[in-house]
Automatic annotation (TrEMBL):
Required cofactor(s): pyridoxal 5'-phosphate
Annotated organism of origin: Brassica napus
Family per record: Belongs to the class-IV pyridoxal-phosphate-dependent aminotransferase family.
Record-linked Pfam families: Aminotran_4 (PF01063)
Protein name: Branched-chain-amino-acid aminotransferase
Amino acid sequence: MALRCLLKSPTTSSYISKICGFRMHGTKAVASVVEEHVSAMLRSERMKSMLMWTGTTSDSVLYQQITCSPPKVVEKETSNKVALAGLIEGMKAYRGEDGRVLMFRPELNAMRMKNGAERMCMHSPSVQQFMEGVKQTVLANKRWVPPPGKGSLYLRPLLFGSGASLGVSAASEYTFVVFGSPVQNYFKEGTAALNLYVEEVIPRAYIGGTGAVKAISNYGPVLDAMRSAKARGFSDVLYLDAETKKNIEEVSAANIFLVKGNTIVTPATNGTILRGIIRESVIEIALDLGYKVEERVVPVEEMKEAEEVFCTGTAAGIASVGSITFQNIRTEYKVGDGLVTQQLRSILVGIQNEFSRFFFIKSIRSSSTGSAIEKMFKAISSLRKSLVLPLHSNIRTLQTFSKYNAQAASALREKPLYQDDEYADVDWDNLGFGLTPADYMYVMKCSKDGEFTQGELSRFGNIQLSPSAGTKAYRKENGKLLLFRPDHNAVRMQLGAERMLIPSPSVDQFVDAVKQTAYANKRWVPPSGKGSLYIRPLLMGSGPILGLGPSPEYTFIVYASPVGNYFKEGIAALNLYVEEEYVRAAPGGAGGVKSITNYAPVLKALSRAKSRGFSDVLYLDSVKKKYLEEASSCNVFVVKGRTISTPATNGTILEGVTRKSVMEIASDQGYEVVEKSVHVDEVMEADEVFCTGTAVGVAPVGTITYQDKRVEYETGDESVCQKLRSVLVGIQTGSIEDTKGWVTCIN
């Protein structure tokens, strides 16, 4: 299973970092009897070896081949944990004119994280625990909050799975972290107007996916479109809906609004659009000022008729849009003082910073009537009470917040955790939007019982993680270690890395790493017929970054674990459920590569299906919901007579190495193999159905349930599935001669 996290490995530098790309692969090493001696590093009773490269990139070589330091086998720290899924939040702390530190609607961030966690099958802190962690982080880093008008302390609450898990499943442990960095403008244009480009190929989200929650799975796939747009001089990308490609949705990390006359329009949050906190606040302010606000489907053609366009987000604030380019036609919009955008921005910034009455009068006098001023002050007075939370540096004040704060206050009195300087040594006038780590972060853990322990502050630094997940190796009778088509895994990782804007190791580096890891861990290969050694090559961003963009550093790791059968049924037939609400991937997304973005979103559907007694979920296409795609982590085949059909790899389906091998074997045995769009009705009339994948091998399907109709299929020794499986396993284990050059022997 993919390692889903937003943190750095402890083997790299000490910064917490956002992983903007993630690639993983599974290959099978087939082993027999191993040599009696083992290396000194394997003498422990636990498997401890893995291979790792760390490479760095600069702006000039960011998208070139990764330059890696020499590979090294490292000891796997037993205290490390695995991250399985990730949710992020973004929020800001401001300094008021009186020196107080202010938070803007933090309870909404807390509730949004809880909603996202429920969608991703994760445990989450309570609203009170979330706010407590944020408050303590802000107070401990108060000197990093910029002076009024110079920026803000950007806070990153982060929830990720940190408990080890091998298959596609929820984590056994979760960690909640809050850290901060002083920032100024998100866009390089500063407060100047943005120039957007409408993306027609790559969507940001799709119905049934996770577009409405702040999950890392929403960000990696958009990096390619962003890079391409910025290379052509645009500020950011405006995405269209995945289904019709005719309606606007969001910018990469911000909501969008169109203004025409007294009407302000924004796309409705229908499951594909994030309900931004700044978005909700701007809507409230606009309504208080007497504007008509419409949340609805917004056709892309409507942009041509708008007078103003602006974006909103925690990082972006309220940013004016100067132009939008769609199908090579550039439309320009009004910008500057005296417009709706500036009026809304002035009020929002004023509420966030508690600026004086003079500020508002001055900001609107040249463009607004007296009645507008009155409306503005009414909006400010009513909204400030509910939107802004003051945080005081007086330690005793902490005791009024909660029992957690009382304990924190005691700890602070005994041993001061933050410095007394009013401001950190920062050039506030030249502050950008990059990672400048503040002094402290807040960490809180949750076990599988769902209860978070009390969190605590610690110095900003790395959190120990290990990459525990999977790939396979078998023990042969002839004493050799064999790998099954590792070069195909290497090429697939390279193609996926290109899609996710990640430099990748060469094919030779990849295969050599897998060989070294398999050989170093050969004593962990189970006896023949007792299981396999699962090997997981993993490529992840490991460099520090705060905003949305490629990582400045990447790490390639290979590790292994002995495993049995992937499904609890063992070699028994599977019972699948056809999912109609949630989808796995969409055209233009990353469904065709082996990325973490494909796995976290399926946990909800998978958990629900298993609770009803099914083995796994069979997903349909995201557009028509009528054509088969994949199961949660494997390809699917349909047998009717002498014809074997499988969904074509059209960008939403992973081109599995086992899938490709089974197709070749079936063709050799005289079957007609067809790659096409497979209608769900065709599946319900099939003779046999089976799944393929590195983890599952070739697994027969006994039943499929679709719209409460259950269909049974042929299984057993004489089935097509079993015949294909026997040949594949024979080649992998060396009991059948490899005439295709698929097997690599490890000396």
